[in-house]
């Protein structure tokens, strides 16, 4: 299969005061070229951790990657030299849109200055390798052209003036547009967008999602889109991967995901959405403590279908439909689909 | 944080940076005068509860009652206290801090003659602490929990705990008395360079007199090191905390995730943010520096305001001490004013 | 030739010779100015100086001085009118040496019949007048008057400039550093008797003892004051660059006792105090034997000091005995000491130590000299006891006894509130008598009575340990100038 | 309350630097209390032995003897009492004045609170030690006056701190919630605001202790502290200068004592800040 | 309609001063501008709108946390507009407010038990035992174990904190509760449980809710009536079904159109609204939505359109409301 990104068996822990938190447990995850993949799951299930692992920016002092591989465009990122990753993968081949556009700009520099710094290192024109000693004038002005053009493309009014502003002088929606522009500027192959609309109002969210989807399609960029809002995921993703407490539980194309969820957790999650049809249903119980996670399938303590098997071993991915993979011993059979 | 509603909003009412700096300056200047007035009232009050009678002292051992009365009239001490206060304020407004009971010269003259010595020392100490303290603070933050961080932590903790006068004595004991590497005390051997600015380093450079320059610097070393030690510790501490705060922030996270080299992020971007916090501390640092200057100058016989104050103490020269307090207060207020203004300039979010 | 640098412990805040009178800053007066007479050597003897000769009338009231040919530093001649101006200025300023002349010389009573003759007319006979004449430093009247501002008698100008005729002429002054002067070649006394007189003298303020000592040892300074703590003197003596010149001086250390306040009004209490001080511990241990025990208020080496007074010893039994005889109620006694003068504090602590043991409660109050000197003149505020020195301003027993214990000096120089009719009679007689034998007998007797009465706790007479660079020759020590008269000195 | 204390103790024990600070301070207190027992020459505070002056450290005199022949070590122990007394009383007075002033000024927004804050601003406009010197000099040297000078110049720090913290606490939802619930101003101030700002006050007070000890030592050094023969540390150092470099122990011992104690308070303060104040925890050491 | 109103607001406004750098007021931020609505006994009134539109301000002004700039608040027939919190103790018991972040409304240094006790201490003369009884009862009602009484707020989860926040206000048995974004920040699975709890308690204690939220899906599920706010104004008010099924105001329409709905058409393909809300301190004249409205005409800028009830129980504030067109003769 021609995947742009293939994460296999990734296991990551964090050293904390109360022991090792097993935040990712043998996670499998892939993204095809030009595909928008949603990574969904409740707060704390490890979405950001997975995203950061791909970017290679897990906190060095506390994160422990104990197994797995991250293959991107034919390179195993976990084996690469970190410096090389920083220069030609991060910000070049893979770019990033953060969750919170309010705090992701440095408050004491103008927006223009921050974009310029990014372009200095990550402009598509920049020669790959050790990075610039000097920011040549010619490149600087061609980069500026490029920036202004893209700012217009993301529908930011008066881009020249905008570059002279400080981040706090710009609204949240505009900041997120800037972030998207900055993610596109290096002409990457993959954009990792970590809950890019959570902090925004619905009307703004709709605008941003629209923009992101259009640009990704136009430019053939793959997007890893994390969110805990299933509605948002439905809007933008071609394919979904659901995570629960550090484990990937199900991965499917959007259509079959919403119509025929197979993993019990996915089913319950979808049922939790307020709906006129079935009222309000939650999932009883609580997410496990990741420093002492339950063995086997981590959802088993809250799962009404759980068996002894579930409590012992975590199922391997099994195909349950076209491109539809679930890791469940007792997959749902069309039961409870919304 | 997830799902929380967005906070913050575009501030279209924000004036430009220059405007902000101006507004800040004016705002602070408006408070300058009342603060100074309050300070005057405090010093006046203090000097009016003194046990000894300064007039009797000025009058000398053999003054008669009439002479004392005449002197009281001359100095205006026979008037009601509010009138005296008013006259005192008027006097200070005109640069008249009274007469030194000890030297019999106008206090203002004495203080101005000594101000450059103190300022030169303070400047050198501040620069020294900044130039060394800031990079070390950044290093400590970047290499958090490394042996370097721990060593620097010991350093900062010591810097803040050590009594400056004792440290000064220790340095003297070691470098001047035992090893003989530096002069024991004083600002220069003999008379120093011809006064132009009053700063000996500048003056000896202006005069092209390298020998004197070397001598001046030699004399400067121990006092400057003593003074800058606690200041350096404070600066380091705040820089470290500031850098750590900044490093843990989302914008650094973002830049690193976008592959901007760590060293660039830290030294060009984080530092600026960290310095905002450090700059606000300069006022505090300067205050401590001045405080320490009093005793450090006494130990090193540095002919500045601190030594003047100590001599005034020994001579019970109340006018001298009050003059010193006032001028220190003024210098301190001005420094804080500058700090506020520069803070406003560095941090675009600051709105006064 | 050469330059001599002296490290002085006190700051030269003013150079006006009539404004100051202390020993610490004597150098500016004695080197930049001249008086009609001058003290020399040790024991001190008085010699005519600017004056060629002096004649005293039989009634002891009229002193006629004849001036030599001398010039001020600006080249103008020293004339009798300058002397008249100078004494009248002293009397008007009421500072410095004023008290020596107060009541004896009236303002305007001094006349200059011609340019070379000055006539002083005293309003009562004084045996000490001549001894105080050296303090009349002669100013260049014209120059001073030209620099007067608002009738300040030129004090502002004189605080930074010189208007004298002395052996050296001021070239530089900075209150924070000190002053520098060059040799005045036209000085009336000439320079023949000195083989290679100094070109330049510099007196620098160096407050820190250690700095003075180190500077001297490494050759930066050529001399410093002779009253260093003994520990430092030892260090200096050990240095090969420094010679320490030892001389018995005339500066006594004692404790004033406030005789006018209970329970010190009781002689037994005063005796208890005197027996409770550890003289040997203080002199032998703390001061390493660098001073001489002096049981009376007069320096041992001054005439008028009786040889037969033994003085008190550290004897707590006797102290307790006398204490038992005290009728007045006891209370906490305040021991005064001078800030910045560690010795006074140590003495007070030692006395406290002794008094503790006989059950007298004490507290030590250390205050700066201006505060202390203010309190000393106030019967209410004066400490119960106060340790301090009494230096030589003029070499006559009256400098000590007459000022410290005469009844008429109470509240001024007599800070003990001590008034004993017999003692007062002896002192008054001695002050006016011109008969040396009478004077000597009177002073000896007065000393005996004062010691017997335990009017104060008399501890020691200072020795002077003048540390000078080995390159320095010709230092002439005199208790009045403290060895700081530089005209005799040379350096190689 | 008991539980909070236990929690604190447990946290303290786990934070190495804070534990070290606490240890030093405990030691100081023990030393001060038990000075008569621990000292080898307890009488030497007021009793002297001139023949034994300036002896170097030995088995009999751990830190040598001073200019009066008294045991430096014993006097050091008794000096700790003075240090503690000055620090505790001066800080106590400042806290007692500063907290109510800051609390009231912070809670009510009217001209009185403005005036109070202006006054404390004026005090803060001069380096504290400069003002303390002026006051101490004016009043004359004694322990009481040192304490007075320190308290008079220190209270604005607490007033300012409490004021700022109160203002920010008033913006906190739980305070607003209590007010909305109908709680009286006093209830809010005493039961909600004060306990919640207490951690910053405690931290500030702990570090302030160190600062006060340093300032008091400076006053002592300048001769504005308690008079001889008080074993106050600052004045001991001043006394000793005359005898350098020979009698190095004389200056070294009290200087080290000041250093240790101030460091103890600073370490404890830093530690408490980390423990009590989750906001700064992030920037502390993990 | 106002007859059975438990609470009614008449032209209620809350304006915050906008300060310039000189700390002088340079204008007003109309966080709440002439809002009139009423809440009926036993109903759940939803208030929706984008961030900063004045939802919380509405709640807090009703509660007396903010002093209203103008207008009247009538609760159970009494005018409580100008009562300060302590003057209206009795009133406070009946009218309660939960904070947007209920965890933050608990004193971090107080154990849960004490926080729950506080309202009783302030408002009742019950003795310790009786209070304890009451607290237990209510804790049980919100589904928390007794053991939680001895925990500190930071020791329990966000969902539990919300329960405690709710318990705290229920101890006084109020008749009406303003719930300010009670589920924001919660995962859907937890949100569902909490919502169920609200509905439960409402039945049990016979409560009336004002339910502030920006989650339209939730509002639709739980609310009987809905008020849509835009920049300090209520732009549409009506029953849930009316609002969600037949929205009239262009803003309401765009708001609904922006919400992704699983299984329906993709918003990213259909959404039309552009731009962002203007600065609330510097509002456009006339209709506040006109700057973003695709149907805006010139007269929209002339006057602020009033909220008009074009059909029973459904009011909107659009000059070109489809309802108005239906009724107008032109
Ligand atoms: N640096 C770290 N040290 C220790 N634990 C961490 C660290 N970063 C994350 N965790 C823990 O790892 C788990 C997963 O965190 P992560 O941020 O990946 O979740 P998420 O799915 O992105 O959640 P959210 O939706 O809240 O952003 C959480 O339990 C979190 O507490
Ligand atoms: N105390 C205050 N002082 C000044 N302005 C305020 C204050 N409280 C709220 N505002 C302003 O009033 C407007 C409405 O705020 P409010 O909190 O009511 O909005 P909201 O609809 O609750 O938003 P959110 O969804 O973010 O909670 C905002 O622009 C806000 O900045
Ligand atoms: Mg996340
Ligand atoms: Mg709100």
Protein described:
The complex is a heteropentamer of chains A (338), B (352), C (492), D (286) and E (330). Chain A has 338 residues and is α/β, with parallel strands linked by helices. Chain A folds into 2 domains: 3-242, P-loop containing nucleotide triphosphate hydrolases (Rossmann fold, 3-Layer(aba) Sandwich), CATH 3.40.50.300; 245-326, no CATH class. Helices cover 32% and strands 24% of the residues of chain A. In chain A, helix 4 packs across helix 6 (172-184) and helix 6 (172-184) runs parallel beside helix 7 (202-219). Chain C is α+β, with helices and mostly antiparallel strands and 492 residues long. In chain C, a hairpin with a 5-residue loop joins strand 4 and strand 5. In chain C, helix 15 (421-432) runs antiparallel to helix 16 (436-453). The radius of gyration of chain C is 23 Å and the shape is globular. Chain D has one domain (23-36, 64-280): MetI-like (MetI-like fold, Orthogonal Bundle), CATH 1.10.3720. Chain D has helices at 2-14, 16-33, 35-38, 72-107, 111-124, 128-139, 143-170, 173-181, 185-221, 233-240, 248-276, 278-281. Chain D is elongated, with a radius of gyration of 22 Å. Chain E is of the alpha/beta class and 330 residues long. Chain E is 32% helix and 24% strand. Chain E has 11 helices and 12 strands. The longest helix of chain E has 18 residues, at 188-205. The model of chain E has no long low-confidence stretch (mean pLDDT 85). Chains B and E meet through helix 1 of B and loops of E. Residues 55-56, 100, 180-181 of chain E line the site of one magnesium ion.
Task: Compile the SSE list and pairings.
The complex is a heteropentamer of chains A (338), B (352), C (492), D (286) and E (330).
Chain A: E1 3-16, E2 19-32, E3 36-40, H1 47-55, E4 63-72, E5 75-76, H2 82-89, E6 94-97, H3 111-122, H4 137-153, H5 159-163, H6 172-184, E7 190-194, H7 202-219, E8 222-227, H8 230-236, E9 239-244, E10 247-253, H9 254-259, H10 264-272, H11 308-312, E11 318-321, E12 324-326
Parallel strand pairs in A: 3-8, 3-9, 6-7, 7-8
Antiparallel strand pairs in A: 1-2, 1-4, 4-5, 9-10, 10-12, 11-12
Helix pairs in contact in A: 3-4, 4-6, 6-7
Chain D: H1 2-14, H2 16-33, H3 35-38, H4 72-107, H5 111-124, H6 128-139, H7 143-170, H8 173-181, H9 185-221, H10 233-240, H11 248-276, H12 278-281
Chain E: E1 5-19, E2 25-40, E3 44-48, H1 55-63, E4 70-75, E5 78-79, H2 89-94, E6 95-98, H3 112-123, H4 128-141, H5 158-170, E7 176-180, H6 188-205, E8 208-212, H7 216-222, E9 225-230, E10 233-239, H8 240-245, H9 250-258, H10 267-270, E11 308-311, E12 314-316, H11 322-327
Parallel strand pairs in E: 3-8, 3-9, 6-7, 7-8
Antiparallel strand pairs in E: 1-2, 1-4, 4-5, 9-10, 10-12, 11-12
Bound molecules: adenosine-5'-triphosphate (ATP) (2 copies) and magnesium ion (2 copies).
């Amino acid at each position: 299969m021609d995947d742009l990104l293939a994460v296999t068996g990734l296991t990551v822990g964090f050293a904390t005061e109360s022991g090792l938190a097993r935040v990712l447990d043998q996670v499998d995850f892939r993204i095809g070229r030009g595909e928008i993949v949603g990574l969904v799951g409740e707060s704390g299930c490890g979405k950001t951790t997975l995203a950061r692992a791909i970017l290679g920016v897990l906190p060095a002092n506390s994160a422990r990657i104990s197994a797995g591989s991250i293959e991107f465009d034919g390179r195993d990122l976990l084996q690469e030299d970190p410096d090389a990753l920083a220069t030609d993968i991060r910000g070049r081949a893979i770019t990033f849109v953060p969750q919170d556009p309010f705090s992701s700009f440095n408050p004491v520099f103008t927006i223009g200055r921050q974009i310029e710094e990014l372009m200095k290192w990550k402009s598509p024109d920049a020669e790959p390798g050790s990075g610039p000693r000097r920011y040549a004038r010619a490149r600087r002005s061609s980069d500026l052209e490029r920036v202004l053009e893209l700012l217009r493309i993301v529908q930011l009014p008066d881009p020249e003036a905008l570059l002279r502003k400080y981040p706090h002088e710009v609204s949240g929606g505009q900041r997120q547009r800037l972030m998207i522009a900055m993610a596109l500027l290096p002409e990457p192959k993959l954009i990792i967008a970590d809950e890019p609309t959570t902090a925004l109002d619905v009307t703004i969210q709709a605008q941003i999602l629209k923009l992101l989807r259009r640009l990704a399609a136009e430019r053939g960029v793959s997007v890893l889109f994390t969110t805990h809002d299933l509605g948002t995921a439905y809007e933008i993703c071609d394919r979904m991967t659901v995570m629960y407490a550090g484990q990937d539980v199900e991965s499917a194309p959007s259509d079959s995901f919403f119509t025929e969820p197979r993993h019990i957790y996915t089913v319950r999650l979808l049922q939790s959405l307020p709906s006129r049809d079935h009222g309000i249903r939650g999932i009883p119980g609580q997410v496990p403590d990741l420093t002492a996670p339950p063995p086997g399938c981590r959802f088993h303590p809250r799962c009404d279908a759980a068996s002894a098997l579930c409590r012992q071993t975590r199922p391997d991915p099994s195909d349950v439909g076209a491109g539809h993979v679930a890791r469940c011993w007792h997959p749902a059979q069309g039961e409870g689909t919304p | 944080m997830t799902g929380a509603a967005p906070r913050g909003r575009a501030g279209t009412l924000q004036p430009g940076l220059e405007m902000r700096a101006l507004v800040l300056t004016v705002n602070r200047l408006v408070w300058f005068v009342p603060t100074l007035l309050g300070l005057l009232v405090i010093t006046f009050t203090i000097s009016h509860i003194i046990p000894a009678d300064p007039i009797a002292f000025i009058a000398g051992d053999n003054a008669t009652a009439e002479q004392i009365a005449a002197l009281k009239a001359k100095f205006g001490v026979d008037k009601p206290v509010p009138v005296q206060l008013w006259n005192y304020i008027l006097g200070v407004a005109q640069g008249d801090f009274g007469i030194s009971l000890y030297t019999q010269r106008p206090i203002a003259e004495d203080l101005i003659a000594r101000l450059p010595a103190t300022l030169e020392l303070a400047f050198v100490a501040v620069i020294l602490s900044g130039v060394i303290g800031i990079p070390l603070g950044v290093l400590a933050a970047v290499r958090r929990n490394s042996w370097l961080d721990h060593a620097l932590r010991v350093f900062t903790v010591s810097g803040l705990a050590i009594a400056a006068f004792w440290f000064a004595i220790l340095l003297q004991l070691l470098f001047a008395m035992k090893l003989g590497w530096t002069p024991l005390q004083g600002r220069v051997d003999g008379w120093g360079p011809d006064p132009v600015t009053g700063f000996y380093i500048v003056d000896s450079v202006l005069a092209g007199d390298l020998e004197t320059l070397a001598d001046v610097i030699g004399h400067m070393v121990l006092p400057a090191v003593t003074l800058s030690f606690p200041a350096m510790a404070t600066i380091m501490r705040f820089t470290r905390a500031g850098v750590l705060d900044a490093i843990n922030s989302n914008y650094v996270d973002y830049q690193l995730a976008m592959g901007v080299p760590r060293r660039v992020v830290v030294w060009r971007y984080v530092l600026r943010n960290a310095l905002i916090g450090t700059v606000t501390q300069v006022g505090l640092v300067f205050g401590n520096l001045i405080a320490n200057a009093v005793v450090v100058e006494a130990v090193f016989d540095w002919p500045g305001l601190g030594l003047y104050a100590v001599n005034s103490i020994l001579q019970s020269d109340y006018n001298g001490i009050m003059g010193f307090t006032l001028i220190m207060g003024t210098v301190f207020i001005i420094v804080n004013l500058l700090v506020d203004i520069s803070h406003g300039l560095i941090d675009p979010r600051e709105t006064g | 030739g050469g330059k001599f640098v002296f490290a002085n412990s006190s700051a030269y805040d003013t150079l006006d010779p009539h404004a100051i009178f202390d020993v610490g800053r004597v150098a500016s007066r004695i080197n930049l100015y001249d008086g009609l007479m001058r003290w020399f050597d040790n024991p001190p003897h008085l010699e005519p100086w600017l004056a060629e000769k002096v004649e005293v009338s039989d009634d002891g009231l009229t002193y006629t001085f004849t001036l030599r040919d001398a010039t001020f530093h600006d080249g103008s001649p020293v004339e009798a009118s300058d002397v008249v101006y100078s004494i009248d200025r002293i009397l008007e300023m009421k500072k410095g040496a004023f008290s020596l002349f107060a009541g004896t010389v009236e303002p305007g009573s001094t006349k200059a019949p011609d340019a070379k003759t000055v006539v002083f007319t005293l309003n009562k006979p004084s045996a000490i007048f001549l001894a105080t004449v050296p303090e009349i430093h002669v100013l260049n009247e014209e120059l001073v008057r030209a620099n007067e501002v608002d009738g300040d008698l030129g004090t502002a100008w004189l605080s930074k400039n010189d208007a004298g005729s002395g052996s050296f002429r001021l070239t530089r002054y900075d209150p924070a550093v000190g002053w520098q002067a060059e040799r005045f070649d036209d000085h009336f006394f000439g320079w023949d008797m000195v083989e290679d007189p100094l070109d330049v003298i510099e007196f620098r303020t160096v407050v820190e003892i250690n700095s003075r000592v180190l500077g001297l040892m490494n050759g930066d300074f050529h001399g410093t004051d002779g009253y260093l703590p003994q520990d430092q003197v030892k260090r200096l003596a050990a240095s090969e660059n420094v010679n320490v010149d030892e001389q018995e001086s005339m500066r006594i250390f004692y404790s004033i006792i406030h005789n006018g306040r209970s329970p010190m009004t009781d002689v037994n209490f005063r005796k208890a105090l005197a027996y409770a001080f550890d003289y040997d511990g203080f002199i032998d241990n703390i001061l390493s034997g660098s001073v001489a025990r002096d049981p009376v208020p007069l320096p041992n080496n001054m005439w008028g000091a009786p040889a037969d007074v033994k003085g008190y010893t550290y004897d707590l039994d006797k102290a307790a005995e006398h204490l038992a005889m005290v009728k007045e109620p006891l209370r906490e006694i305040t021991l005064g000491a001078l800030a910045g003068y560690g010795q006074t504090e140590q003495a007070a602590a030692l006395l406290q130590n002794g008094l503790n043991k006989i059950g007298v409660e004490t507290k030590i109050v250390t205050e700066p000299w201006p505060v202390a000197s203010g309190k000393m003149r106030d019967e209410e505020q004066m400490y119960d006891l106060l340790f301090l020195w009494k230096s030589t301003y003029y070499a006559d027993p009256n400098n000590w006894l007459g000022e410290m214990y005469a009844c008429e000096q109470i509240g001024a120089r007599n800070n003990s509130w001590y008034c004993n009719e017999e003692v007062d009679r002896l002192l008054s007689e001695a002050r006016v008598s011109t008969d040396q034998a009478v004077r000597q007998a009177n002073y000896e007797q007065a000393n005996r009575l004062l010691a017997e009465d335990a009017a104060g706790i008399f501890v020691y007479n200072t020795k002077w340990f003048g540390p000078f660079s080995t390159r320095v020759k010709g230092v002439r020590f005199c208790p009045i100038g403290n060895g700081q008269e530089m005209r005799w000195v040379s350096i190689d | 309350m008991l539980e909070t204390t236990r929690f604190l103790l447990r946290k303290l024990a786990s934070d190495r630097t804070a534990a070290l600070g606490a240890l030093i301070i405990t030691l100081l207190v023990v030393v001060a209390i038990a000075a008569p027992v621990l000292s080898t020459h307890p009488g030497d505070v007021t009793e002297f032995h001139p023949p034994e002056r300036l002896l170097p450290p030995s088995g009999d005199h751990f830190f040598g003897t001073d200019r009066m022949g008294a045991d430096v070590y014993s006097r050091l122990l008794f000096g700790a009492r003075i240090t503690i007394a000055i620090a505790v009383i001066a800080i106590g007075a400042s806290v007692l004045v500063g907290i109510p002033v800051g609390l009231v000024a912070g809670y009510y927004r009217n001209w009185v609170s403005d005036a109070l804050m202006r006054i404390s601003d004026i005090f803060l406009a001069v380096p504290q030690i400069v003002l303390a010197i002026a006051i101490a000099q004016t009043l004359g040297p004694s322990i009481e006056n040192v304490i007075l000078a320190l308290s008079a110049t220190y209270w604005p720090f607490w007033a300012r701190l409490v004021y700022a913290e109160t203002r920010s606490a008033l913006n906190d939802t739980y305070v607003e919630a209590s007010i909305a619930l109908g709680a009286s101003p006093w209830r809010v101030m005493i039961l909600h605001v004060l306990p919640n700002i207490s951690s910053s006050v405690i931290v500030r007070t702990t570090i302030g202790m160190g600062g006060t000890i340093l300032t008091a030592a400076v006053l002592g050094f300048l001769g504005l502290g308690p008079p001889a023969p008080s074993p106050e540390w600052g004045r001991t150092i001043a006394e000793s200068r005359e005898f350098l470099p020979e009698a190095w122990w004389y200056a070294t011992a009290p200087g080290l004592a000041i250093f240790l104690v101030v460091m103890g308070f600073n370490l404890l303060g830093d530690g408490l800040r980390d423990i009590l104040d989750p906001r700064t925890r992030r920037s502390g050491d993990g | 309609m106002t007859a059975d109103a438990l609470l009614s607001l008449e032209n209620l406004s809350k304006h915050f001063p906008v300060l310039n750098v000189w700390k002088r007021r340079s204008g007003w931020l109309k966080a709440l501008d002439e809002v009139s609505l009423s809440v009926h006994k036993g109903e759940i009134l939803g208030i929706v709108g984008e961030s900063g539109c004045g939802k919380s301000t509405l709640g807090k002004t009703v509660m007396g946390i903010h002093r209203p700039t103008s207008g009247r608040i009538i609760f159970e027939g009494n005018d409580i507009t100008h009562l300060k919190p302590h003057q209206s103790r009795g009133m406070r018991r009946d009218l309660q407010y939960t904070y947007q972040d209920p965890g933050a409304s608990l004193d971090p240094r107080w154990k849960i038990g004490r926080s729950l006790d506080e309202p009783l201490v302030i408002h009742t003369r019950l003795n310790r035992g009786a209070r304890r009884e009451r607290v237990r009862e209510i804790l049980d009602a919100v589904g928390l174990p007794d053991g939680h009484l001895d925990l500190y707020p930071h020791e329990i989860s966000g969902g539990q904190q919300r329960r405690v926040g709710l318990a705290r206000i229920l101890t006084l048995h109020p008749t009406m509760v303003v719930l300010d974004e009670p589920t924001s920040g919660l995962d859907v699975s937890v949100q569902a449980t909490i919502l169920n709890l609200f509905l439960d308690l409402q039945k049990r204690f016979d409560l009336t809710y004002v339910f502030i939220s920006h989650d339209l899906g939730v509002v639709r599920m739980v609310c009987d009536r809905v008020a849509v706010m835009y920049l300090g104004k209520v732009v549409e008010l009506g029953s849930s079904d009316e609002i969600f099924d037949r929205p009239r105001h262009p803003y309401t329409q765009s708001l609904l159109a922006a919400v992704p709905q699983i299984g329906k058409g993709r918003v990213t393909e259909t959404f039309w609204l552009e731009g962002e809300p203007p600065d609330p301190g510097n509002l456009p004249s006339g209709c506040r939505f006109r700057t973003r409205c695709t149907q805006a005409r010139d007269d929209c800028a002339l006057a602020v359109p009033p909220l008009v009830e074009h059909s029973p129980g459904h009011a909107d504030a659009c000059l070109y409301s489809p309802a108005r067109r239906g009724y107008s003769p032109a």
